[in-house]
Structures are given as C-alpha cells and as structure tokens.
C-alpha cells in the first residue's frame, strides 16, 4: 500500500485548513444531519453519528453547535434534505479528478463544479469516466497528538480487526482496510479508546500523474481551489503527483 500515506496527510491537513475558514463546520453539520436521519440521534446506538461527533470535536466545533445540529436533524422542522452526488472529470495534463458533494440544490452544485473545471481548463466527464483509475479503500487517520499509545499497539488492534496496512507518518497514523471492513476496524479502535480524526471510505489512485508545466500547474490549482471554496464539496480526489 506504499504511497497512500501522502494522500492521507493531504486530506487530513486540508481538513484542518478548512476548519480555519469555517468550511469544515458546514460539511460536518450536513454529515450530522445525514447520520441522524439514517440512524437516529443517539450516538451510542448510531456509530456513524458517533464518528461525525468525534470528527467535529477534532476540528474544534463547539459542543452547543453539535447538539443543535443533532436536535434540528431529529426534529420535525422540515430541515434541508441533502443529496450525496459525485462528479468526475479531467484537469489539464490528463489529471483525473473525482468530486464528492453533499447538497440541497443539485443544480447549483452541478453548475459550480462545472465552472471549477472550466476555469482551470479542464472538463467534466460522465459517471465512471475516471473512477476506474482509483480503488475504494477504508482509510482511518489517527493524529499523533491525540493518541497516547504506541504504533505497535495500534498495529495489533487494527490488524486483528481486519486492516490491510498501517503507515506511520511524522504527525499521524494511517490505517488502510477493505471498505467492507471499515466498521469492524473502527469499532475495534473505538473500543480501545483510540481517537480517530477520519474514518471513511475514500478513493485512492492506483497510479499518479506528474505535471511540470507551470501554467498547467496554475490551472490545476485554480480548479482545486475553487472546489475547496465551494461549501457543497465534501472532498475531492486526484491522481496528481504534486511536487
């Protein structure tokens, strides 16, 4: 599974940067709504909600904001209904990009995503036009600052629960598993009181693309920056091997 940790750290750091801008609060608020409506408002009986709450706290989301989000989603106030939509396309240089969104207005989101590709000289594709270049993997990130145990202990817990691999980085641990094993690994870590900053199924590129032309790099960053700024965009995946 060599090479996955780089993408894990990019995603983890991106979330922390987004928290400073406030975008992550919007994303987490929508994830809370989805989790409550799928499994109820009690995190003890709704593991998805429990994880989202952990994610919210890891990003310094105030407790009263979390509680309000849960109550709103559990109530009969006719709150917004969110859809999870995926878009695929190419940036310049043949870089594949997958965009996952959570939106209450698919027309707005489609227009914004298309605009991000267009402004970066890229183009949207059809469903599955680039997905075959990626593989679905469960990815769990543990922040070293939040975890007091050893890497060996973490490896033992994860591998016994069905994980495929674990990587140690300077500021984090990354655990990779098959998507169907995510819940088992996540529950084992939770039972051992291991704090998780991310625990979800992600798209990991099987091969990467290098882009060295200065203008192409600017165009790629333009597309990705616009996606970063869009509150409807949960995350995106690329096979760009950034320098």
What does this entry look like structurally?
- The chain has helices at residues 4-21, 23-39, 47-58, 63-74, 106-119, 151-160, 182-191, 214-229; strands at residues 83-90, 96-103, 123-124, 134-143, 165-168, 172-177, 198-205, 233-238.
- With 243 residues, it is an alpha+beta fold.
- The chain has a domain at 4-74: Arc Repressor Mutant, subunit A (Orthogonal Bundle), CATH 1.10.10.
- The strands form two sheets. The chain has a four-stranded antiparallel beta sheet. A four-stranded antiparallel beta sheet has the order 5-6-4-7, sandwiched between helices.
- Helix 2 runs antiparallel to helix 3, helix 2 crosses helix 4 and helix 5 packs antiparallel against helix 8 (214-229).
- The relative contact order is 0.18.
Layout of helices and strands, plus pairs?
Blueprint: H1 4-21, H2 23-39, H3 47-58, H4 63-74, E1 83-90, E2 96-103, H5 106-119, E3 123-124, E4 134-143, H6 151-160, E5 165-168, E6 172-177, H7 182-191, E7 198-205, H8 214-229, E8 233-238
Antiparallel strand pairs: 1-2, 1-3, 2-8, 4-6, 4-7, 5-6
Helix pairs in contact: 2-3, 2-4, 5-8, 6-7
């Amino acid at each position: 599974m060599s090479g996955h940790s780089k993408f894990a750290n990019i995603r983890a750091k991106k979330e922390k940067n987004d928290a400073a801008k406030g975008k992550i609060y919007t994303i987490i608020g929508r994830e809370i709504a989805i989790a409550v409506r799928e499994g109820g408002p009690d995190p003890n009986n709704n593991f998805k909600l429990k994880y989202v709450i952990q994610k919210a706290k890891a990003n310094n989301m105030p407790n009263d904001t979390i509680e309000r989000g849960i109550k709103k989603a559990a109530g009969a106030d006719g709150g917004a209904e969110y859809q999870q939509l995926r878009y695929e396309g190419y940036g310049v240089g043949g870089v594949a990009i997958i965009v996952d969104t959570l939106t209450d207005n698919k027309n707005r989101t489609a227009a914004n995503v298309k605009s991000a590709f267009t402004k970066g000289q890229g183009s949207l594709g059809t469903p599955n036009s680039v997905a075959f270049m990626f593989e679905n993997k469960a990815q769990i990130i543990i922040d070293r600052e939040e975890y007091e145990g050893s890497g060996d202990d973490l490896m033992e817990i994860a591998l016994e629960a069905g994980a495929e691999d674990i990587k140690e980085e300077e500021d984090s641990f990354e655990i990779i598993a098959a998507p169907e094993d995510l819940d088992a690994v996540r529950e084992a870590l939770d039972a051992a009181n291991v704090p998780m900053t991310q625990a979800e199924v992600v798209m990991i590129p099987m091969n990467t693309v290098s882009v060295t032309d200065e203008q192409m790099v600017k165009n790629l960053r333009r597309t990705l920056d616009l996606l970063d700024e869009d509150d409807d965009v949960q995350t995106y995946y690329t096979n760009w091997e950034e320098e």
